[in-house]
Amino acid sequence: MTLDDEHAWALLRALDDPDHLTAPADYDPDAARERFDRLVARLDADFDCRCPVEGEAGAASRHGAIVVPASALSGTGRIIVVVSNFGDLAVIGVDAPDEHPVGAAPAYVGPEETERVAAALDDLGYTVVPEDLLRTTYDGASRLADHYTVEDAPTWWIRFFDYP
Question: What is the Cα–Cα distance from 157 to 42, expressed in whole angstroms?
């Protein structure tokens, strides 16, 4: 399911437990990994390719990232699916959702391709959160901001997808 901003904010704030920064108290890493692996297999099948996993799964508040390569898509970019350890949250991005080079032309993938990814996430019980919402400055319940400078303030992306 893809959330609108109002419901996404409500969910992010509900999941923002100040005592658990990298995973919720009830996190089951084996179950999360099994479902993540099913997502990888589903995307492999849906796009008739091998979708590599980037980064070490579970190394932070991010469970893992899956790449649908540009060679399997009709546009100029690749799709990156990033899964959080929290609340079954996921983000669908074009190119890398956490890298936007200044001055670079935006990559493109067909909306039907991102819709296929969204359907796979929905079928497996993930909740898609809008990426732009996660780019806002973190103002939640934890003391996360204590670990950053004012100039380098943490975002909701860091809180749920990239906290070390």
Answer: 25
